[in-house]
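To the team - iron/sulfur cluster complex, inputs and output below.
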Amino acid sequence: MDRLEMFVEASTRLTGFSRVELFGTGAAKEYLETLEAVLETPVLDTLFAAIGDLVTDHATEAEIAGSILSDPVLAPIVKNVIVLWYCGTWQQLPDTWRASHGCSPKDTTRVVSANSYLSGLQWKLVGAHPPGGDMQGFASWSRPPRGEER
Amino acid sequence: MRFPSQAAKKTQLEAACQHTYDVVIVGAGVAGAIIGNELSRAGKRVLMVEAGLGEDITVKGYEEYLQRFYATAVKDNQSPYPVNPNAPMPRGTTVRPVAPGQPETSGYIVQTGPFISDTTYTRVLGGTSMHWEAKTPRMLPEDFEMASRFGRAADWPISYDELEPFYRQAEREIGVSADVEDQRYLDLRFPDDYVFPMRGLPLSYLDRMVDKGIRGTEVEIDGERYPLKVRPYPQGRNGIPNSEYDGGKGYVPVGAVSTHQVEEGERCQGNNNCVPICPVQAKYHAGKTLAKALQTERLELLTQAVASKVHVDPETGRVSHIEVKYYEDPDEPHFVTGNIRGQLFVLSAGAIETARLLLASNLPSTSGLVGRNLMDHAYLLNWALLPEVAGTMRGTNATGGIVDLRGGSFRRSQAAFSVDIHNDGWGWAVGSPYTDLLNLVDDHNQFGAQLRRDLAQRISSQLLLAFMVEVLPNPSNRVTVDPAYTDALGNMRPVVSFSVPDYTMRGVAYARRFAQTVFQRLGARDYTFYDPTDYGYIHYEGDGYIIRGGNHLAGTHIMGTDKHTSVVNSDQRSWDHQNLYLVGGGSMPSIGTANVTLTLSALCFKTAQAMLEELR
Ligand SMILES: Cc1cc2nc3c(=O)[nH]c(=O)nc-3n(C[C@H](O)[C@H](O)[C@H](O)COP(=O)(O)OP(=O)(O)OC[C@H]3O[C@@H](n4cnc5c(N)ncnc54)[C@H](O)[C@@H]3O)c2cc1C
Ligand code: SF4
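Output:
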């Protein structure tokens, strides 16, 4: 499994969205590249080693919560990955984290790209649409919300 | 709508300075555009001077606005519009709380308080209409008679019935979608056979849920009872044309403006981005009116030209010329100066900028009221979670609201308000949905299926009620200038001092209780929280509230019947300078509970008529 596959596979567990939905955003590669640009090699290697275990062991949600999400080095990164998928924004890592694991100049709070904003999962989630992006059509707002959010 | 491609090649300053135009207009927002269009169509030669950048009105310029919006992390109100130090504008994110006695100078407007506002306006071609939400209610008949009915403020020099035909002209120009039967309330009168250009936009599912919950509820103030219901707002955005419009002639909506043929914007898509920019141009903006005016080839546009001084002949009191500073590059403070001449002059730079320009020009004023009586609606936000999913985040920003308390005898002692039901959830109050996501992920360690479920549940059951509370004129709420504060071109920046009157705060306190009643009826859980460290925090009678600016700027050159108590007459002509018209919200002597633009547009149609008579 290459890094992109591993990244998306792990992301399905983290976000609650399927592979098809995640690849459907068209942003997977961009998000992986964001990680690669921001993190220094040793941290990146640790992250992917942990992701590898998680994917091959078919870890349960409880196991994920007990492993990478409670690891002081990895948890802030993993949370950032979730936020990336949901709204396309990379958040600067916490100061304490930066002090011990490196402050890349790319580690700033920013929208990764116009596409990443538009394809944020948060819009899909509520049967909506990003402000300014894909549109739903006249009067769609007067109909009951679709199944997803119930 | 075709935007003549030559128009994008701007009129050059030297060329403009060679002529004496029939009319010179400063500011290409909706007010200036309406007057420019009416006069150029009637054969007059018009020059329009605009401080902002010029090529933004076409689809291409529009795309740039959108890309800038998508790619900005902090999506403040003005995020689509480029930073331009030569024609700066207020930006919500630069507002900070101030220490008492210290002016707030980090934003473009210098604020001396005590109330610090995040109110804004946009300085680009098309003005703030590029950015507005486009709700277009009329003022109530009683709003024109505040003094005689309620012993408050002053009566307007014209009545609702006198302005009514001009309201209809404005509704045609802006392209208003509404159904007359929904809008006949609190004595709002329309001719018997009137229909709006387009049918009303349907209420959102969320509106209908709120309506179901509050029907049958009555509130009592000042001995009168008011039954509650949700009503649709009239909107300046394209819906389904009404075939009965104009005696059966119908109405053709104006879609996107471009130098080439495009097919979009003919109908609103409900993508909830009206503020700060509608991606398809279904929402009205002044570029649509400007495009029509440019097609006459009698209106010239001089962009990147900041009017800096109005010169008056001391003998006659007439304006002789306007000095403009023309810049090539928004990032370079370099400029050349030119003098623009005309027979009649119109200042339509917005309530704050028009006053700023007059004050910076140091013109004599009989009433001494230039810059005074600044008004803006005070917004109070209340937010709650509904017990069931309501489909929040779909539709235009607000399709419906509770408007029953816009009028009534209680206005003798407390402010009226209208209530918007926000289709975009808690965004305005707390930054949803981004903040909901961070809260669940960062603070509650949520992920996976549970995160997906909880976030969906939370966002789509959000309810935000925004109360737009009336603010009356007060001479000490004002705009001034101070040579200590200038922009990149050396023009003095506006200095604003403002306090929220007690009359308004009584309305605010009532609004809070009203919101609690509504939430209770809906079984909604109140999450409203007013942080005492917020710049907009106000303490009133033992409770704290956060007030947000309304972006409905008015009152800096109020109209009246007498040169000693007003700045302009009912045609918006300056009492002191016979060939000068000051137009826009600044002329309004009170603002009631109507978003100001439809009314200021109606006034501009009246002014255009008066100007044509004068030029005849
Ligand atoms: C977020 C938001 C939402 C709003 N929603 C609504 C709504 O729902 N309903 C409603 O009725 N109103 C709404 N408004 C208010 C509405 O946008 C304004 O009332 C309206 O656009 C004012 O039009 P105007 O032409 O008078 O002024 P502006 O649109 O401000 O135009 C003034 C023009 O003058 C130019 N200018 C300024 N100074 C100079 C100078 N020195 N020299 C040359 N040119 C100059 C500016 O660049 C600008 O183009 C909203 C405003 C905002 C910000
Ligand atoms: S809801 Fe969308 S299409 Fe309709 S006016 Fe607003 S931004 Fe434009």
